[in-house]
Design brief:
By secondary structure, this protein is mostly beta strands. Helix content is about 0%, strand content about 50%. Strands 2, 4, 5, 6, 9, 10 and 11 form a seven-stranded mixed β-sheet that branches. The model has no long low-confidence stretch (mean pLDDT about 95).
Length: about 110
């Protein structure tokens, strides 16, 4: 069974940082490009970033470019999202996804508030 479990969310002040993780299981993690999405209350899901099968440089939405960094550890079947210089507009539930299959996992809440 494919499982994607995000963790690492929390409440942080503007300008702060968080590092999210997404633990993957039930499929060949290293064979798939992976993505992060977020969904704020009352809003549609928003694509945040994607990273290729072998890792390396990710691609990012303009809203997070220069502040967020995605990475992966294929040996640990884990996807990461380093979020710096957080803003209140970054408040959302963040979750990881397999673009090729549309499968998404359980998310983790990020709240940026003073």
């Amino acid at each position: 069974e494919v499982q994607l479990q995000a963790s690492g969310g929390g409440e942080v002040q503007p300008g702060g940082s968080l590092r999210l993780s997404c633990a993957a299981s039930g499929f060949a993690f290293s064979d798939y490009t992976m993505s992060w999405f977020r969904q704020a209350p009352g809003e549609k899901p928003e694509w945040v970033s994607s990273i290729g099968r072998a890792g390396g440089a990710g691609i990012y939405a303009d809203s997070v470019k220069g502040r967020f960094t995605t990475s992966r550890d294929n040996a640990k079947n884990t996807l990461y999202l380093q979020m710096d210089s957080l803003k209140p507009d970054d408040t959302a539930v963040y979750y990881c996804s397999i673009p090729a299959t549309g499968r998404r996992g359980q998310g983790t809440q990020v709240t940026v508030s003073s």
